[in-house]
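Risk register update: the risk of archive-format incompatibility is retired. Evidence:
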Amino acid sequence: MGESGELNWIVLFGGTLTILLFIVAILLLSWASHRRLLKAEAFTRQIIDRTSALIVLINSTGNISSFNNAFGSLFKSQLSDNDTQNFFKILPLEQSKIDAIRGGNEVNVESFVVTGGEENVGDRIYIDWIFRPFQFEFGDEQLILATGIDVTQRTQAEEKVRLHQKRLKQLSAQLIHAHEQERERIARELHDEFGQALTAIRVNLTEIEYDIREKKEESLAHRIQDSKALIASSISNMRDLAHELRPSIIDDIGLVAAVRSYGNQFANRLNIGFDFRITGQERKLSHEEEIVIYRIVQEACNNITKHAEAANVWIHISFQDSRVDLTIRDDGKGFEPSRIESNGDIRCGIGLLGMEERVSHIGGQFQVESQVGNGTKIHVSIPEGGGHE
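Archived output:
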C-alpha cells in the first residue's frame, strides 16, 4: 500500500478515536451530572423529611403521590388502612374547599387531627394547611402541593382567651346580679330589723311620755327596759351587717383567729365536723391579702352550705417563706370540674369564678380538685407582696 493509503488509515483511525473520546467525555459528564442531581435530590429530600412542616403532593382527585416523614408519622394509621391513600379521605374537608383545590386555586384551611383516642376523646392537633397548584405537569395531570403547619399552641391559646373572655362576661353578669341581691338584702334588713325596731322605740317613747305625765312608774320602767332591749338588739344586728360588708374582725383579732372563729361558727351552724390547722410561722400579711383569704374561706363555706352536703370540713393555712397557702377541703358530694372549665357554667353563683378572680387579682394561683362522690378541695397560693397595703 502506498503512502497515500497509509495516511488515509491514520486519519480515519484518529478521527474515530476522537469521536470515541468525545462520546466517553459526554458520558462521563452525564454520569457526573446525574450523580450531582441524585445528591441534590437526596439533600433536598433530607431537608424535606427533617422539617416539622407537613408536606404532601397530591393530584386533583386527592390521591397522594409523595409525602415527607412528618406527614407520614402523624397519619401513619390512616395511611396504612387506606389502600388508595386519598388525602381527602384521610383528612375530610368541606366540599367547597375540595372543589376549590381541584380547580387549581390556592386554598388555606385549618383542620384538626385526633390522636391518642377516638374523636373528642384523644388530643387534638390543629394544622393550618395551604394548597398550591404544582406548576410542573407530569403527563396530563397537574399536581397540588399541600403544606401544613402545627398551630395547636396558637389555637389552644386563642381558645383559652375565648374561654377567659366568656368566663369574665359571665362573672360580670353574676357580679351585677349578686350586687343587686346584696342591695336588696341590705334594704330588707334595714327595713325589717332597724325599721321595725325604730318604730317600736318611737312607740315606746310616746308611751313613756304618757307614763311620765300620768306617773305610771311600773309601765314606765317596762317601756324603758323594752326600749333598751330593742336598742341592744339593733346594735348587735348592725354589727353583724357591718361585719358581713367588711370583716373588721381581721383588724381586731388577726387573720388566723378570724378564720378559726368563722369556721367554728360555720361548723356549729351546720352541725358538722371542723378541723383547722396552721403550719409555718404565723405573720401579718398585707390587708388585701388577708381580706382575699378570709373571703375565700367565706365563699367556700357558703358553697359547702348550699351544695356539698358535707359531714366534715378541713381548713389549713400554711405560711411558707415567700407565700401563703390556703387549703379548704370537704367530704361532700363533689362535682365535675371539667364542666366548669369547658363552658364556665357553675351553680354556685359567682362561687368558684369569683374566688379565682380574687386570687388572680393579687397574683396568686387558684386550683380546684373535685370528683363526684369524693368531695372538693380548693387550694390557693398567694405570693407575699402581691396585695396592696
